Amino acid sequence: MGQYIIDTTHTAEVTFVVRDDYQNRGIGAELLSYLTYLAMKQGLLGFYAEVLMENGPVFHLFETMGFDIEKRGSDGVYELKVMFRSVAPTGRI
Fold it and tell me: How confident is the model over 64-78, as a mean pLDDT?
């Protein structure tokens, strides 16, 4: 499941989840890629997200999707600002 909620700064908070027994099969990459495609079609410039520091696979996914990323960390959580490039990520990692 994935979704984003648009704010007033041409960005949106993105969230997605993949059931435990379906993780590490590329589903998260496909979800994030499709959400990015939809967001770019709407004229959004990027996403922001909160990711637990212990959730390395999700952070790695954002890194490998080709976004421009800024991160700040505190209290075990990364706050990510993920800006799109001119072409939507492929979803392939």
Answer: 90
Q: What is the pTM of this model?
A: 0.84
Specify which residues 81 forms β-bridges with.
Answer: 48, 70
Structural domains present in the chain: 2-83 (3.40.630.30)
> Long-range contacts of range 77-81, CB-CB < 8 Å, 24 or more positions apart?
77/50, 77/51, 77/52, 77/53, 78/50, 78/51, 78/52, 78/53, 79/48, 79/49, 79/50, 80/47, 80/48, 80/49, 80/50, 80/51, 81/11, 81/46, 81/48
